[in-house]
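The protein record passed on below.

***
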Amino acid sequence: MKSSDEATVPAAGAAGASGTRTWSVGELAERFGLETHVLRYWEDVGLLAPGRDGAGRRRYGPDDVVRVATILSSKVAGMSLEQIQVLLDAEARDRHEVLTAHLAELDRRQEEIDRSRHMTEHALSCRAHDIATCPRFREHVRDLVDGTRTWRDMHPTRLVPVEERA
């Protein structure tokens, strides 16, 4: 994986050999509102590969800034670090499968959001103070009541609280 040139770059705030601006781990973390240990962890798992200065300190170049932005945007989109690793690996053979699976998960989540929105809109306009007593609202939860759908169906294992996992 190539994140930035592996060549040694100048000290903090200076430009690299090509005149390109670089950032220390603290500067880059601050730029994105992260703790420095997050960037170090991403390096440990292979998502980042910053250059080093003469003293061995991490120096991040413009390509690393784009990678951090991509990682953060992908996390917001619901991707795991493993999925992001595939996304950022130019030689990953399973990229298509990973992205297809992620799209399927986004579709499932969108269905849940649409269902939740409809249920909430009904609750907002319903005259019943105890929404569970409203016959029309009960239609929204009938599948859970009759057992054709469960909590685990609505929330895959990775989303079920640890204390509720079997």
Helices lie at 25-32, 36-44, 62-76, 81-88, 95-125, 135-145, 151-154. The first strand starts at residue 51 and ends at 52. The longest helix spans residues 95-125.
